[in-house]
Hints:
Blueprint: E1 2-4, H1 19-23, E2 34-40, E3 43-50, E4 55-59, E5 82-86, H2 105-118, E6 125-129, H3 131-142, E7 149-153, H4 160-174, H5 177-186, H6 188-191, H7 195-205, H8 213-248, E8 268-273, H9 280-289, E9 293-298, H10 305-308, H11 310-332
Parallel strand pairs: 1-9, 4-5, 4-6, 6-7, 7-8, 8-9
Antiparallel strand pairs: 2-3, 3-5
Helix pairs in contact: 2-3, 5-7, 7-8
Amino acid sequence: MKVALLVGLALPLAASFPSQNLRADETGQSGKAQETRVPVADGSLYARTIGRGPPTIVLHGGPDFDHAYLLPDLDRLADVLRLTYYDQRGRGRSADNVQPQLVTLSSDIEDVETVRRHFGLEAPVILAHSWGTVLALEYAVRHPTHASHLVLMNPAPAAAQDFVLLRKAYVHEIGAQMDRQREIMASDAYKQGDPEAVAARYRIHFAHALKRRDDYERLMTIMKAQFIRQGSGGIIKARAVEDQLMQQTWQDAAYDLLPRLSTVTVPTLVIAGDHDFIPVAIAEHVAQALPNAKLVTMKDCGHFAYLECPEAVHRIVEDFLRSANDSERSRSNH
């Protein structure tokens, strides 16, 4: 594992990536998003593609969220990456006809593969945030040749023991507000998926997740609009999916992805924030377990690095991808 501070401006990416990736991008325009549906067994996944550059599959967090909270801020990378976002099965605009009990960690992993094949991508970049990093790593373990690079922003725990570490830090940080959060979650309104109650709960949940108050308020505005758009039915379905996925990962005392990461050899960038409510040690554990990872801890940045520190994230992602590809090309020439 390499540990680094923020680096300087990077050179453009397009010339340094394999031609098969560039061909997949030729029809795209960086300023206009293209929307489509990706067929899966019990319905379809909503997908949104924007940008120019190496094809990139974006995995959102949650697990009960959809991709909307990443916008518009993550789109800043659309000048260097062709970003394909999709709502994971049972969430957001991928919820129709989905039975939550049929959504599993395995089905979510295979949905990444379905998205890859649908868009004809040989080995895209996988860019993931929070919970999405667990999905990205599980995918890379099972499909080691189907990703060229991993970019893991504000990674969630990759082992049940690290979830215990997160929980301990979270309870300490939130303090007396934990009682208020429990009260909201026990209310009929919250249980019935009322968007106002859900937004009130997440105002407490993320109160210590960002460094600056204005960033926090902007995120809460984005998330509240997301909850209203979902409606109570969508919220309840996404929550049921989250419960199942957590039972298969963090709530299973035996869950430990870290030892399996030794088989993931693609260049990986791990981005942490020094004000994240997820302890930096969790990002360190992920980076240490990966043979070819670089860890960057961003100063004055919390759990939503792409929103809080957009210029720094842009620089570090662009530089990482260029440097990783230069290293690969150098090895190929020897």
